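pasting for ref
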Amino acid sequence: MLAIERDNSSLKGVLPKDYAHPRLDKQRLGQLIDLIGNIGLGDRENRSKDILGRVYEYFLSQFASAEGKKGGQFYTPRCVVRILVEMLAPYKGRVYDPCCGSGGMFVQSEKFIEEHGGRVGDIAIYGQESNHTTWRLAKMNLAIRGIDSNLGKEHADSFHRDLHPDLKADFVLANPPFNDSDWRGELLKDDKRWKYGTPPASNANYAWVQHFIYHLAPNGIAGFVLANGSMSSNQSGEGEIRKSIIEADIVDCMVALPGQLFYSTQIPVCLWFISRDKKNGRFRDRRGETLFIDACKMGTLIDRVHRELTDEDILKIAETYHAWRGLPAEASAQAGGDTAKSRHSGGGRNPERYQDIPGFCKSAKLDDIRGHNYILTPGRYVGAAEVEDDGEPFEDKMSRLTAELKKQMEEGAKLDKQIWQNLKEIGYGK
């Protein structure tokens, strides 16, 4: 560990050095070292980084699952990170995460660039983490992959000791703590970041939202995870803050996700996308509009309590957003290489042809949002999915269903009679 720190200045003082501790099982440690030593990393540097990185990410996810609620402090499910990264497409510029956990947002950003033919060195990574152990996990996670970053010289609270006070990022990707009531907001009542209203000391959701907005460059865009309550809450002035943000016309897109995606909570969450410039010359002018996507019914259960979004789910959500923004196929290909080109030109979807889909997506005007009292829940806007006509005439369908109902009621009566007979035989029936 000392040798690794000596050769990697960013890890100085970060790695654990307690492997000689008496309570550590030396035999297990030896077996683990032998196991890792026999992994076929090959001679190619990039392949070595990828395999080691995947091993590290696997253990992070397993630790998060074992830790339960505490696991949410350092690990955001990979499928959630992938949606954010695929939608924002951070090819070039400054990427910022002020509550970076173990660094998953940064890893996926770099992986996105590699997979789409871009240059990893085109993005600069800035992050911050308040938990010392988690900050060390992030430093190791990035170092294993050879990713340069600025996570500050130590762990620190983004609200009370911002390590990047002058940063204006091109992309903000984040998963802040949900509904945090212990953020000491009463000490920051007059903070310059609260442009849209002072957030309540009882909940940090809108403190995070305004922190993200404050650190966005003039053309910057942010994508972040929040609890569903953030879309509709009117408590402690949150509704007024949300109204101010909406009226500023910077809410770009809202995505409702299914429940059971997180290790830390079973509640459903949503994704917010904030754009400083909806008239961005690279995209379609979307001033006065917000895209709503309802993905609540997506995903597949991987065990009794955890759900994952499939590659197809992620692609459908991302391509819908790209189509709405009007990113030209040729621009996408130029930015992301052949993979992006084939992705945006195939599959029957054209990124220049967005269409509302009942039950899934809706491009709503600002007046529509005002009419819904500034509530941003996608279900209020997308409506119900169209039911495909099965071709059966109405009269025939009613006759069939009525006959089925009659049969089921007769069967129910027989079962009721049998139940009372059984009760009578054991002395409880009349």
